[in-house]
Amino acid sequence: VQLQASGGGLVPAGGSLRLSCAASGLTFSRYTMAWFRQAPGKEREFVAVNRWSGTTYYADSVKGRVALYRVNAKNTVDLQMNSLKPDDTAVYYCAADRSIISGQLTTPRAYDHWGQGTQVTVSS
Description:
Strands 2, 4, 5, 6, 9, 10 and 11 form a 7-stranded mixed β-sheet that branches. Strands 1-3-8-7 form a 4-stranded antiparallel β-sheet, with no helix packed on it. The chain has no helices and 11 strands. By secondary structure, it is mainly β.
């Protein structure tokens, strides 16, 4: 399984970015796909997840500003981020797992596969 994240960059506060994660080597439609982020000196934290069944969840810190788009035909999962804040600055990672349970959707160590991360920097 390979996950390739892209789309990060430097944006001013209030701006938007769209991150993309391209997956290969897996039956994409059967995997739960998630986005996490990690700021310097902080633990990796949950951002959004889409279960293979279709349900999507967001962290409270991004709810209303972020939308996850999954396209099974293209093996991609995008993260559209709007109204960005300096606190959103982090390396963003996509993750995948075939058999994750509901109670672990927001737990980084529960995911078997990770992309390399893409840097998002929001200037104040």
